[in-house]
Amino acid sequence: MDVMALTKDARISPTKARDLARTIQGRSASEALKITQFSERKAAFYIGKTLKSAIANAENNHSLSADDLTVKSALVDQGHMMKRFQPKARGSAGPIQKKMSHIKIVLTDNKGEAE
Question: Which residues contact 27 (CB under 8 A, 6 or more apart)?
């Protein structure tokens, strides 16, 4: 059974979060949680938060054990973009794009594959 958690509009650029998302794919949920806890990257906070939410969804909504779960997929998509302007030389303005991300983590218990 697949269980999903989604975090919308996390204040981090998707390109900075994707490499950590690729790292946790295919690992057990507990191992992926350890990776996010001990990583110093900003993306580790958001991905760890989403991973904890997915584990809680599996335990509470579907009565699954957290020990049996693996990360099926971890996707980081482009979210909204805040557009700001910074003063530049000679009275002009330069655009700044503050990017946001949508983080989606899907966990699975490997029982569906065995049947």
Answer: 35, 70, 71
Helices (H), the chain: 14-24, 29-38, 42-62, 111-114
pLDDT score, position 115:
46
Name the phi and psi angles at 27, rounded to 5: -95, 165
* Residue closest to 43 by CA, chosen among 95, 105, 114: 105
The predicted structure's pLDDT at residue 113: 57
Residues 6+ positions from 101 with CB-CB distance below 8 Å? 9, 10, 12, 13, 14, 17, 46, 76, 77, 78, 79
- The Cα–Cα gap between 2 and 64 comes to 10
Q: Note if the pTM is more than 0.85.
A: yes
pLDDT in tens, 34-73: 999 999 999 999 999 999 999 999 999 999 999 999 999 9
